[in-house]
Amino acid sequence: MIKCAFYLAPDGKLLDQPDMEQIKGFLVGGEGLLWLDIEDVTNEDAELLSNVFCFHPLAVADCISKNIHPPKIDDFDDYLFVIVHGINYHIESDVVETTELALFLGKNYVVTTHDVPMRSTSSVFSRVQANGRHMRRGAEFLAHDILDALVDNIMPTIDEMNDKSATIEDEALHEPKRETLKSIMQLKRSILAIERILSPQRRVIDGLSRSEYALIGERSQIYYRNIYDHLLRMEMLTYNLRDMVEGALNTYLSSVSNRMNEVMKVLTLIATIFIPLTFVAGIYGMNFANMPELQWRYGYFIILIVMAVIGISLAVHFRRRRWF
Amino acid sequence: MIKCAFYLAPDGKLLDQPDMEQIKGFLVGGEGLLWLDIEDVTNEDAELLSNVFCFHPLAVADCISKNIHPPKIDDFDDYLFVIVHGINYHIESDVVETTELALFLGKNYVVTTHDVPMRSTSSVFSRVQANGRHMRRGAEFLAHDILDALVDNIMPTIDEMNDKSATIEDEALHEPKRETLKSIMQLKRSILAIERILSPQRRVIDGLSRSEYALIGERSQIYYRNIYDHLLRMEMLTYNLRDMVEGALNTYLSSVSNRMNEVMKVLTLIATIFIPLTFVAGIYGMNFANMPELQWRYGYFIILIVMAVIGISLAVHFRRRRWF
Amino acid sequence: MIKCAFYLAPDGKLLDQPDMEQIKGFLVGGEGLLWLDIEDVTNEDAELLSNVFCFHPLAVADCISKNIHPPKIDDFDDYLFVIVHGINYHIESDVVETTELALFLGKNYVVTTHDVPMRSTSSVFSRVQANGRHMRRGAEFLAHDILDALVDNIMPTIDEMNDKSATIEDEALHEPKRETLKSIMQLKRSILAIERILSPQRRVIDGLSRSEYALIGERSQIYYRNIYDHLLRMEMLTYNLRDMVEGALNTYLSSVSNRMNEVMKVLTLIATIFIPLTFVAGIYGMNFANMPELQWRYGYFIILIVMAVIGISLAVHFRRRRWF
Amino acid sequence: MIKCAFYLAPDGKLLDQPDMEQIKGFLVGGEGLLWLDIEDVTNEDAELLSNVFCFHPLAVADCISKNIHPPKIDDFDDYLFVIVHGINYHIESDVVETTELALFLGKNYVVTTHDVPMRSTSSVFSRVQANGRHMRRGAEFLAHDILDALVDNIMPTIDEMNDKSATIEDEALHEPKRETLKSIMQLKRSILAIERILSPQRRVIDGLSRSEYALIGERSQIYYRNIYDHLLRMEMLTYNLRDMVEGALNTYLSSVSNRMNEVMKVLTLIATIFIPLTFVAGIYGMNFANMPELQWRYGYFIILIVMAVIGISLAVHFRRRRWF
Amino acid sequence: MIKCAFYLAPDGKLLDQPDMEQIKGFLVGGEGLLWLDIEDVTNEDAELLSNVFCFHPLAVADCISKNIHPPKIDDFDDYLFVIVHGINYHIESDVVETTELALFLGKNYVVTTHDVPMRSTSSVFSRVQANGRHMRRGAEFLAHDILDALVDNIMPTIDEMNDKSATIEDEALHEPKRETLKSIMQLKRSILAIERILSPQRRVIDGLSRSEYALIGERSQIYYRNIYDHLLRMEMLTYNLRDMVEGALNTYLSSVSNRMNEVMKVLTLIATIFIPLTFVAGIYGMNFANMPELQWRYGYFIILIVMAVIGISLAVHFRRRRWF
User: Fold this and answer.
1) Which of B117, B251, E285, E323 is most solvent-facing, going by the fewest CB within 10 Å?
2) Which residues of chain D, if any, have pLDDT below 50?
3) C71 conformational bin, left if phi > 0, alpha if psi -120 to 50, beta if neither
4) What is the pTM of this model?
């Protein structure tokens, strides 16, 4: 489905559906800028890419495939083929889904393809619809706007993870449950997933921001550099996040073992106090014919007192050694 | 055993067995493409490689040896000698077996040797048998097809491991057994083995995709780059797999220790409630002559109630402190 | 809020508030040095930066934004745009707050902006107020002084952490409490945060200390190198700190498990001595009609002695095996 | 002790003891190849190296010293000074001993020195004795043969470790003993020791296999590359070994804790079943005057049945919760 | 305090105290070599460095400061300023103290400064006093001798640590005490400290041994390379040390947990055997009116035998399952 087609002649024109003839004419040497955004590439779309734009078969194959490819730049002289990753974060299940944006950057056109709807392309598209100015600066700036929107869309996910991480740490400290561990491990995995997305991405954007590619002029490089800085900042934040999550894991483990220790200590307290006392009671439960104490008038009371003394002094002793 | 020999003159010809004279003639300056695929290299085959193709003795020695050599490219000007690794994965025992493909790439020939049957060479061979078109593009493209098939054959293994990993994680959470740990450790080892295969391989393919070697033209480099991207993608996937397996290991360990803790808590519950009660019973089992309570009319019943009160209040206390 | 504006003509002049006309005139080709330090950049300030100084919109955007950007140098030919990080350390809560200083270094001016008050700029400012000499050496030296102050302000934090780490290690050894673990983990996080601040910073200063930028002459490079050495030294110190904290963590964990082991050993001692004795008492509490020992004259005393012997020999046995 | 001296004139000559005059004459410009292999360098040998061969004092000092030096190549224009490491593996004590071979490679001579007898030099020596052909290819090939033998001698050690590692893993699974842990840790240390020997060695051989040194011609470089490949392969194998040993360690730890858990579970089973029953028996052991049940005709049998019911239902309950 | 001043004219002259005039004259163009070794730099010394030698203020500041700076080389064209680290190891407290040596290497002079007495400078000084020959080879060789002595002084520390590590490992295996853990952790920290000293040092010496600095001629580079090799060797040794210490830590932890397990097993043995027996005794301690067994003639003896059978069979059962 070709979601949108755009055209900016000296007088600015907007097309709902791409008109093949017009596009062909334009590509030959038209002035202005054309943007095609294709969601869920069909065979028909693929033919458009292959035959009208004459993109390399391997690049077109990457667009058709539903797999997630690693971020990269391929320089085909006439156009750049860029693959970058966005994020779809489902906060309740804490799953980070990677989405792929393929972008062809030519002299007077930008073609973007993706398998699922992407907030970045649609938001830039709305902005462009509202104001043609965004197109006037040329293809390299339009590509920048799209990539910038894609990268900025990762930020809210990191913020949400930050909040979640704080919640989990609190839970780990005050009421460690089995679910807490599961959440911690899930969150850690999500953070690792984001790190793995950010760092190759950063290398791609770094490439674009240097004077390696003829299609990206010096004037726009600093803007690509800016995206690079954003990615770097996000990486710093994910490192902090990982620290937090590892802290939460340690807190959880120590909370759990602390509770267990508490339980064991109570067992020990009860057992070490009552086992000797029970033994004493056992002695005077014996049926020997000749046990003088049993005949004493206050034998029973004396022995009760003796037991109390033993019990209390054991408890005091344990208290003093800071066991309880 | 020379499993197959192929020859494509301007008019396309297929040989069942290599004809030495023909080959010698062809190698001198024949147009077209020759592919020899040798399985389990014999001394006779080795002589063919040494005397007819005049390959370097060290390269021929690598082909004969049954050892697995690290992936590499040796540039002998007239031909490239490439070693790459494939995978044989036995899912039930979860063992990753590395297989080795040695490939000589000359101007108008490709020679492949391997110790065990390989799906990659045989599938390309069938395709070539069905359609000569694959040979027409020249040696560098035939070599690409073989390497591409080899690399793509690793993917199903990663998918299977993915499934297995999910199964194991589930098992670790719901019924941790000793076998679960063994499976986790075995799977982790397999994943590490695959990582170790992928990453040097990637460096070899990276070398082929750059303009380092005269035998690989600019037109085919982008195709080798494509294999490189596949390998990169698989590496990303194995990293995720490793995360999953480490998560499973943590889940297993925490499941096991959780069960143990549960067991210990029940012991503590029973012991801390009944030890004091038994002590009380012990007291009234003593045989002192003068124990007034024993003569009370409802002494027995009173003491039963006292015991019940002690027992219940201890249980309530533990419950309140969330121990059970 | 523009906290201060400074101007040094051949005769040295000090301005309380920047005079736009004067600044514009000076920037064109004035001799001397101008320093603007802007805290909490307002829209008005941003316009000053954009229109009067003609800084690049992206750099100005970085100054306005309240986010912490990663340290970097952007070279805009006429001026350098540098972002570096300072530290605000709250010792009681052990939180390391990163503060950001943005610095524009031109031929005859330095502009610094920051969101929160910074000790480094204010201390250099006071020094400059007291003695114009600091301005006479030119922009690159003023920028050096500010960066130097910023970096030196990190040192006391490391010292404080050092003290704290020693205290915590002591506490972990002698009275491990739950709070100790929390402190250790918090301190570790703070140290990691400082490491993450120091190491990209070092790369930025390294860049300034090499002959990469036209605005920083050879004469001042050695001074920037000096800042670099300070940062390196701090990194070495933070590595040591991390060792100490990890040592403290190990000490804590081993202290806690030691105490638990001690508790368990006492339980075992008491239980293993008294359980057999209670059994013996139980035997002679049985009500069989025919139990000869019960009728012996000294049966009771003999059995008491037997029990004492059993108890003492068990205790001696355990003592010998070094359990207690 | 100069174990052997060799000389190959156009007509092939073999010397038992080096003849100083002959050697001096040969070194000036003799055609052929001289090989001196010195075991346990004496002062006299050192003078030979210093005065006749005119080797650099630092190189000679390295030969005399009994210390193990890190692998390196020193290029003294007229000759290369190479230090490489061999392995002596004592399988019963599982100790990896590093041995050092120092090798001087000149235009028409090779001098090797070592402190202990080395299989690599002696085996090459025997081959040379048997067949002069090995000397005919020149110094660089003789040096290659010696280094190749040295590196190949590491392989059997890795194989033995592989066997040992499998044995240990089995032991860890089926009968974990304290000795098992010691073996695992010892084996791990040996593997680390081998890794540390292989990886700097590889860098040295890598240097020799590139066109960095005038004394090693293009024709022989591919042979040095072959040694490099062997080292790379061994490194891959040691990585696998390390995985196996770490797996064995995990198996051991989990086996031990499994056994402990089993023991604890039996304790819990016995205690939780019998403690309540003992309490019941304790109740009817009390001596209250008025305990109606005691007078019932079948009171005793009823209570026995009650106890059996309690005990069995507890056991069933535990069984159902999969504790046993 | 200027501990020593040295001067070697063609005829060799020795000064006890530096004579300013003579030094000034010499520095202008004197032939020979001057060595000043300053311990605990005073303000007066600093002036000498600044005014007579005209060293850069930052280098002089580094000499005055009591802080430990990271190793580095600063090239001021006329002289090199080198900072390297020595070690003071207190074996009883196992503390590694880093000491700093600052060295100025000029054409005809060497100036060394340090805060504490250093064995390396004083030993070279004695050698120089005994034999002027050491000065005759020029400044670069004197600097080499000092650095060589400094580096060699690290070796005994590593040897001592090696011994200590073996002692500790033994202790960990045979009598693990709390102090053992503390020693292990302290030793590990010392080893890490040494690693951190060696590795940046190595980079400094590596710089000196390459042809980067005009003041260090080709002839002496191989000698600096030799120091580099020593440092490399020490690094290898510290890696082995770290392995040993980590082995000791594992041994300790497993020894401690082994002892605990042993203790727990005894508890379990005693408890699981006596708890059922006590229950049996409890049954026959009940006071039911109608308990036929109690009236049997040999009831008591039968029940004693029953108990013995139960106890022994439990013990045998446990023995068989290898618990004890």
Assistant:
1) B117
2) none
3) beta
4) 0.82
